[in-house]
Design brief:
Elements: H1 2-12, H2 18-24, H3 29-36, H4 47-50, H5 55-71, E1 75-78, E2 83-86, H6 88-95, H7 100-112, H8 117-125, H9 140-148, H10 163-175, H11 183-209, H12 213-228, H13 238-241, H14 250-253
Antiparallel strand pairs: 1-2
Helix pairs in contact: 1-5, 1-6, 2-5, 6-7, 6-11, 7-11, 8-10, 10-11, 11-12
Length: about 260
């Protein structure tokens, strides 16, 4: 939580030095969380008796968060001057509310090139935001049927029991507007559809900042596809079959027709 807060404040320009972040942390929810449960942040209850304002712990949290963001290139942190400077990657992560590990993953893979559909889909499935989507026992048969059917046009990359394979399957099922029977799988599908659009946008901006036009064009096609709920290679008249296809409301665009 502290890492995300430091990245946001550095991007907005309200925190330019570690000393500013040290003072700002008192007014954040993180500080009150430390007061209520210090053990979660690596401290003992006795620290409140020795240091009521948690100066040492706040300083440690800020420096650790800044070094973590600097390692993943979301900010530039000078350990000597204690200055915090935002980067383009950090701005992208704040704008689309992307986890710092996901932003770093996008940057690393974009540098290697992501001009294939299966690579893009796998990269989106590896996002930290989808790490909690475990494959349950009652979902295995339905996921297997979806993968074997014509719904999945792009081959699934990775372990079928891993979250990234599940995300790849659910994204393609959403593009094909395939019905899903399992209740838990429906909930996970809604979660994926609610977040995949902004992650595609974040990946597109990352690719664009690297100057890779071919990858950016391919990712933009996927971005439009997941936002409209249709395959990019679908016939142009398919866009007119659903009267809500271009509705600003995302939920209306996903309503069956």
């Amino acid at each position: 939580a502290c890492v995300l807060c430091v990245d946001d404040e550095a991007w907005f320009g309200s925190v330019l030095w570690a000393l500013d972040a040290f003072a700002w942390l008192v007014f954040s929810a993180v500080f009150f969380g430390i007061l209520r449960n210090p053990r979660v942040y690596g401290a003992d209850e006795t620290i409140l008796m020795d240091d009521p304002e948690l100066c040492a712990l706040r300083r440690k949290l800020i420096v650790d968060a800044a070094e973590t963001l600097h390692k993943h290139r979301l900010i530039r942190f000078n350990s000597r001057t204690q200055r915090l400077d935002p980067t383009n990657l950090g701005r992208m992560a704040c704008r689309y509310y992307v986890d710092y590990e996901t932003a770093s993953l996008f940057r690393q893979d974009v540098e290697l090139g992501v001009d294939e559909d299966r690579v893009i889909l796998r990269l989106l499935g590896l996002a930290k935001e989808f790490a909690s989507l475990k494959v349950r026992d009652d979902e295995e048969s339905e996921l297997s049927n979806l993968r074997r059917s014509a719904i999945c046009r792009v081959p699934i990359v990775g372990d079928f029991d891993a979250p990234e394979a599940k995300v790849q399957t659910l994204v393609q099922a959403a593009l094909a507007q395939a019905p899903i029977k399992a209740f838990s799988l429906c909930a996970d599908s809604n979660y994926v559809q609610a977040n995949i659009g902004r992650l595609c946008r974040a990946l597109f901006v990352t690719s664009l900042s690297q100057g890779d036009a071919s990858s950016a064009e391919k990712i933009l096609e996927w971005t439009k596809a997941v936002e409209r709920g249709l395959w990019p290679t679908s016939h142009v008249l398919m866009h007119f079959c659903n009267p809500n296809c271009f509705d600003p409301d995302v939920q209306k665009r996903r309503q069956p027709y």
